[in-house]
Design goal:
The chain is mostly beta strands and about 290 residues long. It contains 3 helices and 16 strands. The chain has a 16-stranded mixed beta sheet that branches.
Length: about 290
């Protein structure tokens, strides 16, 4: 932070300049006001100088543990700020790698990763210290969780306040909620219920499997995109309440409604198959794209 200019501003305002004789009567009042202002200025200078004088180096702490589970285990993950990256694998274990970050040892030591594991269920909760009320206090503290799970495990609850969620190669049912940030789901041929309050949301399928699944993506404010191979067969449902829809699979026209500029798509693509892609955006745009046109 740049040095404060408050002291220079006071000098320019004329407090150090000689006063005309006709103003001598108000000298005492001016001196009193200056005294009070000087006290306020001194406090401000201390606070402003403190903003840039601290050590802003990020402290990190890594931990990793593995838990043996059943292939159909139920997983729940709760985090406040940071990232949650979930990968499906062919091993019957849940591996949790957590990266804690903070600006002070005190804040870092108060971040706790609580894992409760049984063969049929695993609960992962990142607990950060409460945010201080004082504006100049240390508010740091994030957790990046990388979780490897059996591909067939279900994720009944994944909650993150701010940051990024990645879902990769999951075959069990998924329910994820994000307040602010980005959700990216890749090659998840399974029932998904994804919601983002503000940010971006993307679904990507690099190849296509004829599976019976429904992927539902809901965005309150932001843009959503879906990338699918040209040969994919699915039922496409899309609604942009206050936005536009771009559709590479546009062999049927987009339906536009005059009330509030709403746009909708209800389309069978390449025969439909058993899969449904349902994207709903309240304020923002939707893009349905061919991954390999």
């Amino acid at each position: 932070m740049k040095p404060s200019n408050i002291g220079h501003s006071i000098g320019r305002s004329g407090y150090d300049s000689p006063l005309p004789v006709r103003q001598l009567g108000s000298v005492r009042a001016i001196v009193a006001n200056c005294g009070r202002r000087s006290s306020v200025v001194a406090v401000l200078l201390m606070l402003l100088n403190g903003c840039g004088s601290g050590n802003n180096r990020v402290l990190e702490e890594v931990s990793e543990k593995a838990y043996t589970v059943e292939p159909s285990a139920n997983i729940t993950i709760h985090n406040r700020d940071g990232a949650v990256l979930v990968y499906g694998s062919d091993v019957n274990e849940v591996r949790v790698r957590s990266l804690k970050k903070a600006y002070s040892h005190e804040r870092l030591s108060r971040i706790v990763i609580d894992v409760s594991a049984k063969p049929g269920a695993v609960s992962i909760t990142a607990k950060a210290p409460p945010q201080p009320k004082w504006a100049f206090s240390d508010h740091s503290g994030t957790v990046d969780c990388t979780v490897v799970v059996p591909a067939t495990a279900s994720i009944s609850a994944l909650d993150l306040n701010a940051g990024e969620i990645l879902l990769d190669s999951i075959r069990g049912a998924v329910r994820a909620r994000l307040n602010d940030g980005r959700i990216f789901a890749r090659n998840c041929f399974t029932n998904m219920d994804l919601t983002v309050n503000r940010g971006t949301l993307a679904l990507s399928y690099e190849w296509w499997q004829k599976e019976n699944f429904s992927a539902q993506a809901t965005m309150v404010q932001g843009n959503a995109s879906v990338w699918l191979p040209s040969e994919a067969g699915f039922h496409l449902l899309a609604r942009a309440a206050h936005g536009k829809i771009a559709n590479d699979f546009n062999n049927v026209p987009v339906t536009a409604h005059s009330s509030g500029g709403e746009m909708k798509i209800d389309q069978i693509v390449n025969g439909g198959g058993s899969a449904t892609i349902n994207v709903r955006v309240e304020k923002g745009d939707i893009k349905i794209a061919e991954a390999n046109p």
